[in-house]
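Example: DUF4275 domain-containing protein.
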Amino acid sequence: MQACLTNEKARDAFNASNKSELYVMYQDSPNVLLYKNPNSLVAEDFDTEQDIYIFDRNYTWTYVHTHESMCGPYYKVK
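Written out as structure tokens, the predicted fold is:
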């Protein structure tokens, strides 16, 4: 297990993070999406998504939104 921010602290950290470019990956999909200039994205944009992993181009942080309503979201800084 890794120490990370959870719940509202994770959302706040994601919303405040530098998002000049980021990757979005879904657990059951072979595709990884690259978002360029996504600074207007906020954690709430992903509330209806399940098992989604979002990380910046340099892998300095990761935001995870799971399918379990009682778990996460999670935000981890490298």
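The radius of gyration is 11 Å.
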